[in-house]
Design brief:
The chain is mainly α and 118 residues long. The chain has helices at 15-28, 31-43, 48-55, 59-71, 92-114; strands spanning 46-47, 75-80, 83-88. A hairpin with a 2-residue loop joins strand 2 (75-80) and strand 3. The chain is globular and about 55 Å long.
């Protein structure tokens, strides 16, 4: 682990900015929203019906969670006729989720080894 002297200096962050950051992360704290993000990552642009099918959620839940993801800037949507098409608007969200999943897999693997598993 790098010492405190070797770390790069972080810019100052106001309490208001920290509150916004916390709100953004709270958006990700809902498993249904993670399902939607994963479906969009795997399927590309999907309409609401396709998201319902991919996630197993109801249409009302998908619509509500997509709205939260849109408000957070993670997902975008556009209308094609009467159909709403959803897509990942912020590619960094995919990188973040990939990093978290990789980290969790490493930690779980280490725990299995400690317990004498394969």
């Amino acid at each position: 682990m790098p010492s405190a002297r070797n770390k790069k200096a972080l810019p100052p962050v106001t309490d208001e900015a920290l509150a916004l950051i916390a709100s953004w992360f709270r958006t990700l704290a809902e498993p249904s929203r993670l399902k939607i993000l994963r479906a969009l990552e795997e399927g590309g642009e999907l309409n609401i019906s396709e998201l319902v099918e991919a996630t197993g959620l109801t249409q009302a839940n998908v619509s509500r969670h997509v709205q939260s993801l849109v408000d957070a800037g993670m997902v975008g949507r556009r209308k094609e006729g009467l159909t709403v098409i959803c897509f990942i608007a912020d590619p960094s969200i995919t990188e973040l989720c990939d990093n978290v999943c990789s980290n969790l897999l490493k930690r779980l693997s280490q725990q299995v080894k400690k317990l004498g598993g394969a």
